[in-house]
Amino acid sequence: MSHVLAAVAWPYANGPRHIGHVSGFGVPSDVFSRYMRMAGHDVLMVSGTDEHGTPIQVQADKEGVTPRELADRYNRVIVEDLHGLGLSYDLFTRTTTGNHYTVVQELFEGLHRNGYIVPKVTMGAISPSTGRTLPDRYIEGTCPICGYDSARGDQCDNCGNQLDPIDLVNPRSKINGETPRFVETEHFFLDLPAFAQALGKWLDSREGWRPNVLRFSKNLLDDLQPRAITRDLEWGVPIPLEGWRDRTDKRIYVWFDAVIGYLSASIEWARRSGDPEAWRRWWDADGAGEEARGYYFMGKDNIVFHSVIWPALLLGYSGEGDRGGEPGDLGHLNLPTEVVSSEFLTMEGRKFSSSRQVVIYVRDFLERYDADALRYFIAVAGPESQDTDFTWAEFLRRNNDELVAGWGNLVNRSISMAAKNFGEIPAAGELTPEDRALLETAKAAFAQVGGLIERHRQKQAITEAMRVVGEANKYLSDQAPWKMKDDRERMGTVLHVALQAVSDCNTLLTPFLPHSAQKVHELLGGTGVHAPMPSIVQVDDLDGGPSYPILTGDYSTGARWASAPIEAGRQLAPPKPVFRKLDPSIVDEELARLDPAAST
Ligand SMILES: [Zn+2]
């Protein structure tokens, strides 16, 4: 047993999330967390919505609402979507809580005290006509990197690179079109080069990372530059230094506050649990959390924040960069054990794009299809280690041929045959070599499938579990218990063995397919919670702010990661189908929902 932190990427709250997002961070982190809990580890799975920064301010301006109102709206949408997918967060919170502000400011102060945050004079934009500062969001121009003509002052939405307003080619004010004037202004920078050595040593000691993630991260160390951590912006966490605290025109940069969310959410979880120090079991590198492991889940566009910047913040706060220093009140903090990054999901051969309608929102998907059908697709065909295309034809095929005709059929025919002929789980008589072979295959799969999930090879893991399903289906076809009307004892034995295999397969598939796993558990006559589910709870802000919805749950009950012997004599009723077979017409219907360009 050990303490395992599952730190899941923070979805940005400027709109609903699409299935590409949840295939990168959401479902894989949930499969991992569910498995680790079943295997007896003490898992803390945390995340929340990322709510500061220019894009939310810009979107709010466009809609005539406050940034907080906009963030409230999408925080709720995202919480509901993640709940619909059954993602078992211990806490899914947000970055606009009083707790988060306190923790972000504590890290900022600790880094500043240790000398890792340095002021720097840079060129900031002002409006020549009014003489006032022009916040980043009011400046637009051509991206110097990709040439996109509507890049913002802080970021290019086309290539994703972070920018400074002065980098833009042909900068212009979005207010009146005039060309901004650049004057000297002071900002704070994180002294990243001071961590090059410590980061290099840490990266060299990493084991088991996907090779591309490790290589990419090490390459970044060759060219570390000080990085701005404050912006000309009103929406964000105030800068906690004398003379800056009360300024309303400068805020901490959104990326700096968002990565700290893993720590602040752990602290919030502990404060809500009744033991405010409990978070240290996952974080305290010198004490309670010494043996803890931390796994960070994200898409590949976020690797730099998790393998370089977040570790640098943790090193600096703990006093472990080139400038030394002392740990702050939160202590000496654990660095990530592993950065688990996935690749991109594309959509019918094209990049997801909300503006071009090449998109399937989680909400729309869940209105028409079951959560486990999507979870299955993501696990078996998702972008685990290479960019992967989502097509409706492939979704249909995976659902109908594998989930329904493979696993659903095994559940359905074995339970209905036992229900019809015995009304209960029949007892097993003497076992044949074929019976033993199936039972052993199923039992042996636990170590194999579990080991693969622990090493983040979920595609191989679910394929292995489905291989056992295939073996069990073959066993039933070979044994043909429906032909054994005059040998009830042998029929009972075969069905007992088949049901034991169903029970084992169901446990093996539980991390991937928790909703249907609960149903299969009940069809087998089981009671109680097999696969615990998260719930949405409206809570008060712990520090006096407005209330908000969180995702949380009690995951201490549920199945263990082991073969559990089924009990002969347990009542069985004729089963209802666990999965829905989809009509092939959905493919054309769904393609028609995309923009006309997609279907021609
Ligand atoms: Zn660009």
Structure, explained:
- There is one protein chain.
- This protein is of the alpha/beta class and 600 residues long.
- 43% of the residues lie in helices and 14% in strands.
- It contains 19 helices and 17 strands.
- The strands form 6 sheets. It has a 5-stranded parallel beta sheet, with helices on both faces. A 3-stranded antiparallel beta sheet has the order 4-8-9. A 3-stranded antiparallel beta sheet has the order 6-5-7, with no helix packed on it.
- A hairpin with an 8-residue loop joins strand 5 and strand 6.
- The protein is elongated.
- The mean pLDDT is 94.
- It binds zinc ion (ZN).
Report Rg: 27 Å
**Counted beta strands:** 17
Mean pLDDT: 94
Q: What hetero molecules are in the model?
A: zinc ion
Helical run tally: 19
Give the overall shape. elongated
Low-confidence stretches: none
- Structural class category: alpha/beta
Strand content: 5-15%
The helix content is: 40-55%
Q: How are the strands of the biggest sheet laid out side by side? A: 3-2-1-12-13
Features:
600 residues; alpha/beta; five-stranded parallel sheet; three-stranded antiparallel sheet; 19 helices; elongated; binds zinc ion
